[in-house]
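User: Thanks for the earlier help. One more: Outer membrane protein assembly factor BamB. Can you show the sequence and predicted structure together?

Assistant: Of course, both are below.
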Amino acid sequence: MRDVMRWKNVALLALAVLVVGCSSNSKKELPPADLPDFEEEVRLDKQWSRSIGEGQGETFNMLVPAVDGEQIYAADVEGLVMALDRKSGDLIWKQDLELPVSGAVGAGYGLVVLGTLKGEVIALDAGSGEEKWRARVTSEVLAAPAVNADVVLVQTQDDRLIAFDADTGAQRWIYESTPAVLTLRGTGSPVLTNRLAIAGLSSGKVVALDAQRGLPVWEQRVAIPQGRSELDRVVDIDGGLLLSGGTLYAVSYQGRVAALNLQDGRILWQREASSSVGVAQGFGNVYVSLASGTVEGIDERSASALWSNDALARRQLSAPEVFSSYVAFGDLEGYLHLISQVDGRFVGRVRIDSDGLRARPLVVGDWLYAFGNGGKLVALTIR
């Protein structure tokens, strides 16, 4: 078993490199594309900036902040958790867990919830930062837990979904599935509604469970593993799921981007795509950052590409987010890019953190929050 785990850890590291554009068939890896010149149409104003400890760390974490009400919560890789006023950036409280945080941040219903590399789930009081409970899970937690009024839902690296009582931390149920032989390092954050608990798995499937009991409601395959080698057959759904109204969006690595009916999992449309970071939706379109560094706008009515912007090839783009009339995303050099939802042209750019920007931007109304790899949390608005 030890040898198997050692092989899997090596494979995870290799696949992390694969995601960012390295080709095993290339004698020399191509460098990231140079930043293109363009005529700036949109100016971003920095409202405030805060340092959140050590930031994302070196293990390709995706520690995305969370907003609940007028507070924003952020955590660094070493367990520093901070609550800030989202408009002023003023510190409300901070808590140092002194633990390797890898799944952060889930917030809502009076809780701030985090997961660790040591397989722990920790719930803090959203008002004071005091610990309310902690629980153990079966393996590391690499994405933010989800919260509703009744349960906290956690997805672990070994493709288990575990629900805890939101008040006490007692385990309610566990759903187990068989993970793929090789996987990317990471999982997407699960989606939790009042009725359903939904997650994307390393097998390329999306599962929906009854949120109260953990019983399967439906299952749908988004990607089918293909190829002779296990590397070719990696189809993880790691970018997280996006729920908009009654439609659920998912994208897999080396697979497809798809829209599913929330109630029964029926595929509404699908299109070939390869991404490990996720999608955004707006103006009747879906936007996806592909593993190659291309950003695509997809028409939901026809599932055809409206436009494709490949000017940022191999720049390790973050997941996109819709911001006003634009699509925002980060890159490996810490630039936040804005492109038009209409035609994909560049309209704005600002550098957030010289250590890089791989976490999905967070948009709340007219405000955008970007959390850089080095720990800079910046609040921006459009001038």
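User: Great, one quick takeaway?

Assistant: The CA atoms of residues 110 and 118 lie 24 Å apart.
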